[in-house]
Write a structure and sequence with these properties.
heterodimer, A: about 270 residues, alpha/beta, seven-stranded mixed beta sheet, 11 helices, 7 strands, B: about 400 residues, alpha+beta, five-stranded antiparallel beta sheet
């Protein structure tokens, strides 16, 4: 059973250390996006990487439309992995929607986690005036899903042709190919609907595990207002604004990302 | 910018690595309705719809970073007047003067966009239809499963029912035997010979009779038909039987016998109108010494008294017993000659709404011995003409007087 879950979610364990650190990829990405950042923790920690069912090298046969209709299916994936590995007080690092998946998992089973590190988190992507600014109107998100659908045909060609164009960095191309090409259009659509329409604001007060909110600059997906909302509503949270721009600092600015995580961990451990 | 590039039939744009617009050709500016100074130095998000901004961040940024190029990406631009322009975009990242520059060409695809929308719409409808079909199939499977469960439940119930039926049948069979044990034996001596026939339509009968020798010369003979048939009627026959047995053996007076039976039925049902049953009855007190018959017929089919002269009918003169309280039952007397024959019967033996075949049968077989006549009557009831009488109880008594 345990082995089945580890295979199902393509769980990879590397590094030596007593403490475990789990890296959870964001929307529509697989574990390869963590390559640069995760490497920096292998000396000190047992590093755990995985793919949600339907992505990367997970077992696509296990995909169940009903289970992954909402985020709870993905939360279930994470909890089952923690149970299979018998994790206790592990450090959880989640990008984007995975921040919320990790947070919901910590509410269900607080003993699995010691710290939640959230990169570009958002508890709700839609605007809910006058008290909440999420950044988007419903039409914007429906438009995104529409745009994803209209680009499906293009993807296969795009990635297949790029392999030859990067002889100097072949591993990077392979990385992207695994990440995107194994993504089924229907799964991507359902994940987008589950991720972007989830409203987790009411869950924030239930969190008992300490957390770090990593807020990027000029992040269109998780704007600063959202990070600040989290800072004010998430108990035991620490807020850090990054110099890194965009939504994927672990890819675009791995050094700063590593530094901020390590700084937070050493500071809290000292306390 | 090169003059030709500035006016090619397609948009051209350069970006910094951070997505800042460095330059744009006139064709694109025209589409967007911006001047060059309004766009230069701005983030590309300025000319994207909100959805395109998201898509750009989620897909364009990682792609261009890793692959250095993007091909055939569908995006939607937003003009200064907030008009949406669907475009197909190709991009490549180049190093120019030590700086990364992203060069993009964009072709508006308004017509194609309409067409693709229609295709997607059709695809969605097909998907929805497939889902609905699958749901219908799974609903049907559930219905089938519950139907099977119901069926096996029914089979189980049927089995129980069958068992119950067999038990009930056994019980009724036993009850029939008990009912038959109350019937009196036939009498045969130098003065009189009495034979009876008795057959229930189901397991139990609503008919009952009794023949008793009261003293050396007197015989009491009674035949009753309780309204209806089956268990309730049979129970009433048992109740009246025990009474008339006692009454006739002790006394034999027709008026007393019939009056007592009438009163008994009224008593039985005085507190329960719903269960009320009446019953037709005929009681004969035959005195072989005096050669006369005292009788009362209460609503019963006429008995036949046959002698060499012909047949006399002993008709009903009062309503059935258990009908009206306070009915006066008056004994009538009729003399008989030696060699006379009497036939008493219940309505199950004849067709109650048609021709009474018993009278001609008696006339035609005047000289036949009693046991042969009995067989003839039984056979006449078995004729298909009377087959429907199987639904009624059958009973008759033949009496030869010497």
């Amino acid at each position: 059973m345990n082995q089945d879950i580890l295979l199902r979610n393509n769980v990879q364990i590397e590094g030596s250390g007593e403490k475990s650190i789990i890296f959870a990829p964001g929307f529509n990405c697989d574990q390869t996006v963590w390559k640069s950042v995760a490497n920096a923790f292998k000396q000190e920690y047992q590093v755990i990487l995985f793919d949600y069912v339907g992505l990367g090298k997970s077992d696509i046969q296990s995909y169940d439309r009903n289970r992954y209709h909402t985020l709870s299916g993905y939360v279930q994936d994470l909890l089952e992995i923690c149970a299979a590995l018998d994790l206790k007080e592990s450090i959880f690092v989640g990008h984007s929607v995975s921040s919320m998946i990790g947070m919901l998992a910590s509410i269900a089973k607080p003993s699995y986690f010691s710290y939640l590190i959230m990169i570009g988190p958002s508890p709700y992507y839609l605007n809910d005036p006058p008290s909440y600014y999420g950044g988007f109107e419903k039409e914007d998100l429906l438009g995104l899903i529409d745009m994803m659908e209209k680009n499906y045909i293009g993807w296969a060609n795009m990635f297949a042709s790029t392999v030859m164009n990067n002889p100097d960095r072949p591993y990077l191309t392979k990385e992207l190919e695994d990440r995107f090409c194994s993504t089924d259009p229907l799964i991507a659509r359902q994940f987008a609907e589950a991720a972007f329409f989830a409203d987790n604001r009411r869950d924030l007060s239930k969190v008992s595990v300490p957390s770090l909110i990593m807020q990027c600059s000029n992040d269109i997906i998780a704007p600063t207002e959202v990070g600040e909302y989290l800072k004010n509503h998430l108990p035991y949270s620490h807020y850090k604004k990054l110099k890194a721009t965009g939504h994927c600092p672990h890819m675009s600015h791995p050094e700063e990302t590593i530094e901020v995580i390590q700084e937070y961990l050493s500071a809290t451990v000292k306390q | 910018m090169d003059e030709q590039l500035n006016h090619v039939p397609g948009g051209f744009l350069t970006l910094s690595e951070d997505g800042i617009i460095l330059s744009s050709n006139q064709t694109l500016l025209g589409e967007l309705n911006y001047s060059i100074s309004q766009l230069t130095g701005q983030h590309i998000n300025k000319i994207f719809t909100k959805s395109a901004q998201l898509f750009y961040q989620l897909y364009f940024v990682p792609l261009i970073k890793v692959n250095k190029k993007v091909e055939e990406m569908y995006l939607s631009l937003e003009s200064k007047s907030r008009k949406e322009i669907p475009v197909l975009l190709n991009a490549q990242a180049k190093i120019r003067q030590n700086e990364t520059v992203i060069e993009c060409i964009m072709i508006p695809i308004r017509q194609r966009h309409e067409f693709e929308n229609a295709l997607l719409e059709a695809k969605k409808e097909a998907e929805a239809a497939l889902l609905a079909k699958n749901k219908a199939v799974s609903d049907l499977e559930i219905a089938l499963k519950s139907l099977k469960e119901k069926q096996s439940e029914l089979l189980k119930l049927n089995e129980q029912n069958q068992k119950y039926k067999i038990e009930t049948k056994k019980e009724l069979e036993l009850a029939r035997k008990i009912q038959e044990t109350t019937l009196t034996d036939s009498i045969s001596n130098e003065f009189i010979h009495i034979e009876a026939f008795y057959k229930a339509s189901r397991e139990l009968s609503g008919d009952i009779y009794g023949v008793y020798q009261i003293d050396k010369y007197r015989y009491g003979i009674i035949i009753l038909d309780v309204m209806g048939h089956g268990i309730s009627s049979a129970l009433i026959t048992m109740s009246v039987q025990s009474l008339f047995q006692r009454l006739i053996s002790k006394e034999g007076n027709p008026e007393i016998v019939v009056k007592e039976l009438d009163q008994h039925l009224h008593n039985l049902f005085q507190n329960n109108e719903e269960a009320r049953h009446y019953c037709t009855a005929m009681y004969l007190l035959i005195d072989t010494k005096e050669q006369k018959i005292d009788f009362i017929n209460a609503g019963h089919p006429p008995a036949f008294l046959q002698n060499s002269m012909g047949i006399q009918e002993l008709n009903s003169s009062v309503p059935p017993i258990g009908t009206f309280e306070g009915t006066q039952f008056k004994t009538r007397t009729i003399p008989y000659q030696k060699g006379s024959r009497v036939l008493l019967y219940t309505d199950g033996v004849t067709d109650p709404f048609g021709f009474n075949h018993l009278k001609p049968l008696l006339l035609d077989n005047e000289t036949k011995p009693m046991h042969e006549l009995k067989e003839d009557i039984i056979q006449s009831m078995d004729n298909t003409n009377f087959a429907y009488h199987q639904s009624d109880d059958q009973c008759f008594l033949l009496i030869d007087l010497f």
